[in-house]
Amino acid sequence: MTVLIPTRLSTANLDACPSTTTAAPSAERFVLRERGQREVFCGLTGIIWLHRKIQDAFFLVVGSRTCAHLIQSAAGVMIFAEPRFATAIIDERDLAGLADCNAELDRVVTRLLERRPDIKMLFLVGSCPSEVIKLDLSRAAERLSREHTPRVRILNYSGSGIETTFTQGEDACLASLIPELRRTDAAAPKSLLVVGALADVVEDQFKRIFADLGIDSVAFLPPRKAADMPAVGPNTSFLLAQPFLTDTARLLEATGAQRLLAPFPLGAQGTTGWLKAAADAWNIPAEHFRQVIAPAEKRARAALEPYRLRLAGKRIFFFPDSQLEVPLARFLYSELSVDPVEVGTPYLHKQHLAMELDQLPETTLISEGQDVERQLDRCREAKPDLVVCGLGLANPLEAEGFTTKWSIELLFTPVQGYEQAGDLAELFARPLVRRTRLEV
Length: 440
Fold this sequence. Notes:
It is globular, with a radius of gyration of 22 Å. Helix 12 links the parallel strand 13 (about 315-320) and strand 14 (about 340-345). The protein has 17 helices and 17 strands. The protein has helices at about 45-55, 65-75, 90-95, 100-115, 130, 135-150, 170-175, 200-215, 245-255, 265-280, 285-310, 325-335, 355, 370-380, 390-400, 410, 420-440; strands at about 1-5, 30-35, 55-65, 85-90, 120-125, 155-160, 180-185, 190-195, 220, 230, 235-240, 260, 315-320, 340-345, 365-370, 385-390, 405. Helix 10 (about 265-280) crosses helix 12 and helix 11 (about 285-310) packs parallel to helix 17. The protein is of the alpha/beta class. The strands form four sheets. Strands 2-15-14-13-16-17 form a six-stranded parallel β-sheet, sandwiched between helices. Strands 1-4-3-5-6 form a five-stranded mixed β-sheet, sandwiched between helices. The protein has a four-stranded parallel β-sheet with strand order 9-8-11-12, with helices on both faces.
């Protein structure tokens, strides 16, 4: 087993991997459930934004060279960068049983921690190859933790594309943190936990708004530093910042924490609804709430107006990819007057998305899962103005004359909150502007 720490951009083979789901469709409307060939990234991709968020963590993928090329390519790593992720390459000796994989992994981890003494939390990330050869990373993490505690916490989760779509990598990572959180009892002060990786600038904006509202005890998961892990218990209320954190939410609820029902903080309307859920839980007077949010909400609506004039009436088609599709469609429809023809999502969690689904028009087809050939046929028949899809479909659709938007860019770009509302709208307007210029 050799370790590959990325130093430059490389090419990845982006293969679709099968998956299953047990999510139930919304009871209020028809949902087309498809189980066929899919086209998605794997869960390893979540490392690209997570390694930037937790500043003293390191992500060690146990996988193949293809895994290494995938995350390097997705990250666009520069030659002078010192990223906080690497790949322990499973090579022929490991596969043939000529080497003890656990001993090899111990050697790689020891060498890594000697080279990088700044690491305070190490994630061993499973992949398709490590799961196929039945390498038990959970036991490896326990064994290595005993050796390196208290200097380094060593955890593990699966990013395997066999079972996940790419945003589920973040869900699995955050779920692995829940057992590490300190527990509080019913006597503890009331606290708010914001769950989901947010850009630091967005996190700081939300902190200021919560403080102005009078909600002082606010923590974020994941934290920026391993030492800043929040405590949870019966007096913790949590807001999901991302719609794909199903397992994380379930584990938090098992600790006694209460999930606040809210839309997701995309656009002016979504952000106001998200903040209002916390304000109501803290019994913040409505007049004070409006006074605090009014300036930022006004700026957001002003930033959206030029894009509403450009996007109103445009027809959009979402292929399932990131699990952000339903909140994005709600934002485009309710705030920019875009017509969502079909909104496909890999998994549909009706409780988490209830407020978003209620705001979509009845004419919009909601689909869960994917049969890519059938969905391509529906897209061709609908002839939308803009198609939001994964990288694997974008170029073929562009060759057919469609205007496309890469869904993965919506994860790499800060889009939550009032100040980012205009940036979010521009991500959808930009491909249409580019198409217009190309036609001229």
